[in-house]
Amino acid sequence: MAAQQGGHGGSRRVIYAALAGNLAIAVTKLAAALYTGSSAMLSEAIHSTVDTGNQGLLLLGLRRAARPPTPRHPFGHGMELYFWSFVVALMIFAFGGAVAIYEGWQKIRAPHPVGSAWVNFLVLGAAMLFEGLSFRVALREFRRSHAGEPFWAAIRRSKDPGVFAVLLEDAAALAGLLLALVGLGLAEWLDLPVLDGVASIGIGLLLVLAAGFLANETRSLLTGEAAAPRLVEAVRRMLLADPRVAAVEELLSMHLGPRDVLFAVTLDFRDDLPGEEVERAAATLIREVEATHPMVTRLFLRPRRLPSGGAAA
């Protein structure tokens, strides 16, 4: 539990940083959109508002995931974080991507000049600064948790949506700001207000892609994703290193939370071990594995053969 709390502390730092930045940015963008009539800026305001709500949902997920086990949920509530992360993906898709695409299409159908464009450029510049700071916090925490791993592979292997969801949101936000900046710049320079709507549609498509990726990752975690291969092999090597173990017949794992992994193992103990020694060996192995790998919070061992007078661990 201590390891989980420590990891959740890192997730909370990332989420709080993103929440503060997005809230300030959303208010500023909305004021600029209402003042100038920019479709791309309105899409960005909607995007930042949705992101602010998303961080609130992730914090709710962290709080609910930290609840202790109950008779109804004997393995705890760690998967609540995965559920709320999936809700976040739906929010990005529906209220971020779809609304931005609709707003852009309306602007293309009835283009109108953007008033006081300099206000939008000023707001976009400030937003890029704040989003960049939030992205830096998320990236630093992500790299600390995945030191030495290639970035894209680490994203795919990460089991903590409290970090990678914010990292993905911030990356999409920075790319969306760049699209809005280019779209507004070209609309002013070429005197083509329709490009403001095109930029809005581009922002919407970007958010749809980000939502699809996040939904797929959290879907995998919700449906029982295995532990990282590195952890699985470390546990396998540790079990095989015990001289009483002849072979590891089956090793199954599943994430019950970002730092809460269940292992179910079938072991082949040496044939000459009496039943009492098999029981002692199993109890010792459980203690040693859980002490060495704090993420392994539940380890169930089943001997391949049950010696006479012995019982499964």
Task: Tell me about the largest β-sheet.
Answer: 3 strands, mixed
Q: Helical content, roughly? A: 55-70%
**Principal-axis shape:** elongated
Mean pLDDT: 84
Decide which structural class fits the backbone.
Answer: mainly alpha
Q: How much of the residues is beta strand, in percent?
A: 5-15%
> Which parts are unreliable, with pLDDT below 50 for 5 consecutive residues or more?
1-7, 307-313
Q: Helical element count?
A: 9
Distance between the termini: 23 Å
Strand order of the largest sheet: 1-2-3
Order of helices and strands: HHHHHHHHEEHE
* β-strand number: 3
**Rg estimate, integer Å:** 25 Å
Q: Can you tell me about this structure?
A:
This protein is mostly helical and 313 residues long. It has helices at residues 2-36, 39-65, 80-109, 117-145, 151-157, 161-190, 194-222, 229-240, 275-292; strands at residues 245-257, 260-269, 296-303. A three-stranded mixed beta sheet has the order 1-2-3. Helix 6 runs antiparallel to helix 7 (194-222).
